[in-house]
Design a protein that fits this description.
The chain is built from five helices and three strands. By secondary structure, the chain is of the alpha+beta class. It starts with 9 loop residues before the first helix and ends in a 20-residue tail after the last helix.
Length: 126
């Protein structure tokens, strides 16, 4: 019902998106050659949801989200992934348990042959 829907921001209704309100002024960034195994501890210790990937020359390469990383790791371990990224959780229906996968991640394991973060799905080359 219209009572449950919050009113749209006036600029959005005019086709203008208020980006400064939606964007982080100081996003977390990582270099493209960062070992992929260091990503999950970065997300869990800092409580962030996404990082910007920057090339060694300082160019934007893409974004890796915590949910995207979990989905990538699930695919490496043969787990199914959720269609909704916000609902991405470790599926324990087959293969290693979610607890085992999380333990491996925290120990820096679990990413298979993924050497650097540009090999993770979702980092687009621009």
């Amino acid at each position: 019902s219209s009572r449950d829907t919050p009113p749209a921001h006036p600029l959005v209704s005019e086709g203008i998106l208020p980006l400064p309100r939606l964007m982080d002024n100081a996003p977390y960034t990582v270099l493209e050659n960062m070992p992929a195994a260091r990503l999950y501890p970065l997300f869990t210790r800092l409580g962030i949801r996404a990082v910007c990937v920057i090339s060694l020359e300082g160019r934007f390469c893409g974004v890796i989200s915590r949910d995207g990383l979990i989905a990538h790791i699930q695919s490496l371990h043969g787990h199914s992934t959720s269609r909704r990224p916000s609902a991405a959780k470790l599926d324990t229906s087959h293969g290693p348990s979610g607890r085992e996968v999380l333990s491996d991640l925290e120990d820096g394991l679990g990413l298979g042959d993924t050497n650097d973060i540009t090999e993770i799905h979702g980092v687009a080359s621009l």
